[in-house]
Every structure is written in structure tokens, then in C-alpha cells.
Amino acid sequence: MKYDLRQLGKYQFLALHSAAKKRILAKLVRRVYLSLDDKDAIDHYARFRDYDPSISPMPRSFEDLSHLYHSLMGLVKPDEETPKFLPQIRRLDHKEKEAPFLPFSIYLDQIRSAYNLGSIIRTTEAFRLGTIHLSPFCPSKHHKEIAKTALGAEFHVPIFENAKLEDLPRPWIALETGESAENYAFFKFPLTGGTLIFGNEEFGISNQILSQVDHLVEIPLVGLKNSLNVANAFSIIASAIRNSYT
Question: Which of 59, 138, 144, 163 sits most deeply, having the most CB atoms within 10 A of its CB?
């Protein structure tokens, strides 16, 4: 049974069956485990604890949250919406050691979406792929919507605006579909680096640039749609390149 936690008052909560109360508390603990900043879940839990002081305090570490969740769920039969086990997640950023960036320049050809750009910046930092070079007509790295998807990565990745492709190192590797394109899974990305080129969301990489590149690489697709979101495609390529260095 679902409950509107905002409307669940003291006497209604205390009147619930013990298993129902534990299931509600377990769901709140799980929410905090997945997001330590889930203020609503923290506030609901604190309110229910005010109603019933026998309820354990809400922990703040992943280990203690996991222990409490499994203690609660061990006493009840989980419903369809309450997983029996928590996912094994690692959410803490690395703070002790920063891996060096790989020697790739990433040229973004007229990518217009600040959300896509923010996602690409975040992925670049996560894989420590290289430096980002924005062509004219890309959003500024200071665009407010970039922060929503970059999540602070924009402060760690070298980003250059109004960049010129001719100033960036060879080989130039364009990520684009085409009859002569090589499958990214078999393409040997050079360990010495180069320039990765990604194009506009609607029109792809300009023909002028395509006529000058050294390699054309694609992600083979088998669905009816013959393209991926540029940020999603970037993540696939970034992972493949990073794996080639391991």
C-alpha cells in the first residue's frame, strides 16, 4: 500500500502495522543512501522518529545506511517497489589522487545544446580524456545550463572557446557515420593522442571539416534511428579510448 508521507500524521503512523512502518522507513533510508542530500527523505524520517523514539537515528555514512536498510528489510517481506538489497555503489569523488589527462584534443563543431556540452565536459573529466575546444557558435563554458549537467567538472577540464581546428594536432579523427567509416570497436585510437571531432546535434560534422580529416570512425547502429545523442556517443567513445590505455 502506498502512503502520502506528507499527510501521514502521528496517530496514523503509530497505527500502522509494524511491518508497514519498517517498510516506509527502509524506503526513506534507501533514498538517502542513493542521495545524501535528499532533504525530504531526511525530514520525513526525523518526523517519524519524533512520533516513535524507538526508531534508530538516520545514519550518514553509506555503510551505516546500508546496515540499517538491510536490518529493516530483514524483518519484512519486501513489496514490489522496495528492493531487498541496496545497489553496491561508489558515489564519493576521488579526492586523494587525480589521474593525468590523456593527450587528446576534443573539438566540438557547432554543438548548440548547453546540456549536451555540460555532459561532454563531465564525461571528459570522468575519463580524464583531454582538453576541450569549442568552435564558434558553441555555448560559452560559463553558460548557466552547463553547470546543471557538468556538475563542477567544468572547473577541472581545460576548455578553450572560439577554437580553430587547424591549430589542433593531427591525426584528426571525426566521429561520424559514413560508408568509409571504421567501427570504433576495432579502430586503434593513437596512444600519442590527436584530435577527436564531434559535430552538431542535427547536421553532424560540417562537410568542410570531413574533407580534411585523417580518419572517419562510427558507432554501428542496428535500429531504425541512425544516430545517437552526441553526448551519449561521446561517452561510448571516451570509454573505448580510456580502456585502450589499461
Answer: 138
Q: How far is CA 101 from CA 46, 158, 173, 211, in A?
A: 44, 10, 18, 29
Q: Which residues contact 8 (CB under 8 A, 6 or more apart)?
A: 24
By the 8 A CB rule, do 95 and 158 touch? no
The neighbouring-strand residues paired with 197 are 107, 174
Question: What is the CATH number assigned to the segment(s) 104-244?
Answer: 3.40.1280.10
The structural domains of the chain, with segments of one domain joined by +, span: 5-73, 104-244
pLDDT in tens, 35-62: 888 999 999 999 999 999 999 999 988 8
Q: What is the greatest pairwise CA distance in the chain?
A: 73
User: For position 4, what pLDDT does the model report?
Assistant: 84
Q: How would you list the strands of the sheet with 104-108, edge to edge?
A: 159-160, 130-134, 104-108, 194-198, 172-175, 215-218, 182-183
